[in-house]
Design a protein that fits this description.
By secondary structure, the protein is an alpha+beta fold. Helices cover 56% and strands 9% of the residues. Among the domains are: 238-346, no CATH class; 403-549, no CATH class.
Length: 564
């Protein structure tokens, strides 16, 4: 069996033509186009489109980033399509695919990975589905890391190219700024190797290098100032319930395993509020320690230990202490692929002594160590491919969001001719002592996945007290909430409800949910690795309007998707 596998690997590696690469590339495009056709964009995708469609260039550049937490690049990319009225879903799919498709072309035809590995990598979970089908700025980050890996070994000869790629990485997110800064630190340490401080300064202030580094520093500082959070950012209102040591243990040890072959951080919101299952967390620690040990050993042999550890540790510290959502684990995967690409294209710096006898204990240790490393890598690849299959098939068969179907229902029955009120979000979180806290956010609403399908805002409370029809992660003050409630009361009792707004706080006992009947109910499914998490949203209509609209009441169900 071993000899057969070795022969098969040699056949794949030595196949003279590029047809396998072309086939993998077009299969990648086909999968993304098919799944993208069925995929219904959810809140993150929809709100980026709405910001790009309704906000001014000035707000995109100087106001929105302070609440969104990432530079304005993604909104600027979407803005021409959104403002010119391009098709919503098709635009998101094609924009994302331009970046990810370019990245996969370079990976397939220019990377230094073994051929079988690079033929399979494009179909892993984060590269094929989570950060490709789901359209967010991470598709740009994927391309930035691929470009950095491609030109890494020429950075001292052509520093401007490398710096421009680092600038692109900075522009994708706050994580991009952290990683670009850490890669620059590694670069400077490499320039210092074997030189006096005077020689180091001479290299830094050379005509070729200094202007590029100065440009990168200025760009990074500009972006940091642009995304520095305002005091009323919503993230700061959420209490931290998971202690920092546990978060650091996750980001520094468990994360590589969680990003590749195990599910530790399940579908939730933030690492700072997620209570991880102790037994699963312990398994993640063991597997993460094994994977991290393998990476450190390989980095030592290739002389890329600093390139691995400095960005990895800075990323982990930032993620644990500041902010990490579940999908951010894909970022560490991008970085690790970048590091592996650079390492596989590097000659061994440290070699291991050859055992004198095949039967010696050292030879046996080498043998079993190699078997273990190959087995772990194969397991990681198989699991990630399985996650892709599960998520892609699930996204095709089941709705990922409520936007498309609810917008179609509203248009079909002309509900936009009536007064529609949408529910606003009430977050139930735990305080520092475990007590339940309710955070009311009038800016967040379940209607945002619906809005991109409509030409204009049709909800009487759709702007949520803001000048535009878009939401940002801003905590409303008590005065802002009351002012918004006052405006909504002046509109009168709504004819149609999207989910269950708190009618009592607006109208007292004069209007209640009992005055309405459910007429449409949508269940959606969010796919994450090999799991899915479903929610249900309902449209209600005043009972006296049912006959006029030709609608029948649905059986009652107890659903409240606004309590998390």
């Amino acid at each position: 069996m071993k000899a057969y596998l070795k022969q098969t690997d040699l056949k794949i590696q030595n196949y003279p033509k590029r047809w396998p690469e072309y086939l993998a590339f077009f299969l990648y495009l086909l999968i993304n186009l098919i799944v993208g056709y069925f995929h219904e964009p959810f809140f993150d995708e929809a709100i980026a489109w709405e910001i790009s469609r309704h906000s001014s260039l000035k707000d995109i550049l100087f106001y929105v980033p302070h609440y969104e937490g990432h530079p304005p690049l993604w909104h600027l990319i979407l803005m021409p399509f959104a403002k010119l009225g391009a098709p919503y879903e098709a635009s998101l799919t094609m924009v994302s695919l331009i970046f990810t498709g370019t990245a996969m072309w370079i990976l397939l035809f220019r990377s230094s990975f073994p051929r079988l590995v690079k033929l399979l990598l494009p179909f892993t979970f984060f590269l094929c589905y989570q950060h490709s089908v789901i359209s967010r700025p991470y598709c740009v980050m994927m391309l930035a890391f691929v470009l950095l890996a491609r030109i890494y070994h020429t950075k001292n000869v052509q520093p401007l190219r490398y710096v421009l790629c680092l600038c692109l990485l900075c522009a994708t997110s706050a994580y991009g700024i952290i990683l670009a800064g850490s890669l620059t630190l590694v670069w400077l340490l490499e320039l210092w190797d074997g030189q006096s401080f005077k020689g180091f300064l001479t290299n830094i202030f050379s005509k070729k290098l200094f202007p590029s580094l100065l440009m990168l520093l200025a760009w990074a500082l500009l972006l940091i100032a642009d995304i520095a959070p305002y005091p009323d950012t919503f993230l700061d209102a959420i209490p931290i319930t998971v202690h920092l040591p546990q978060r650091l243990l996750y980001t520094l040890l468990v994360l590589p395993a969680d990003a590749t072959c195990i599910q530790v951080f399940y579908y939730n919101t933030l690492l700072r509020t997620t209570l991880l299952d102790p037994s699963v967390f312990a398994s993640g620690c063991l597997l993460g320690a094994l994977i991290l040990g393998m990476m450190i050993f390989y980095a030592w042999r290739k002389g890329t230990l600093r390139l691995l550890l400095i960005p990895y540790c800075l990323f982990g510290i930032f993620a644990a202490s500041v902010y990490m959502n579940m999908h951010h684990m894909g970022i560490i995967l991008f970085f690790l692929l970048f590091w592996l690409w650079v390492s596989t294209g590097t000659e061994n710096v440290h070699t291991l002594p050859t055992p004198q006898s095949p039967e010696s204990s050292r030879a046996q240790a080498y043998k079993w160590g190699r078997i273990l490393s190959v087995g772990v890598c194969a397991y990681m690849m198989i699991m990630s491919l399985w996650w892709t299959c599960y998520s892609c098939v699930g996204d095709i068969l089941k709705p990922y969001s409520n936007g498309r179907s609810m917008a179609a229902f509203i248009k079909e029955y002309h509900l936009d001719n009536y007064q529609i009120m949408a529910a606003w979000t009430k977050w139930i979180v735990r305080g520092p002592n475990g007590e339940p806290l309710k955070l009311e956010d009038i800016h967040h609403s379940i209607v945002y996945p619906i809005l991109p399908y409509l030409k204009e805002n049709i909800f009487c409370n759709g702007s949520f007290g803001m000048d535009g029809n878009y939401s940002i992660h801003k905590v409303p003050s008590a005065d802002e909430i009351e002012q918004a409630f006052t405006r909504w009361r002046l509109e009168g009792a709504p004819d149609v409800l999207i989910c269950e707004p708190d009618l009592k706080v607006l109208y007292g006992d004069s209007v209640s949910l009992d005055d309405y009947s459910p007429v449409y109910r949508q269940t959606y499914y969010r796919f994450w690795k090999s799991e899915n998490y479903c929610g249900t949203e309902t449209i209600y209509v005043r009972k006296e309007l049912l006959e006029e609209l030709g609608l029948d009441a649905l059986p009652e169900e107890n659903d409240n998707p606004f309590v998390f």
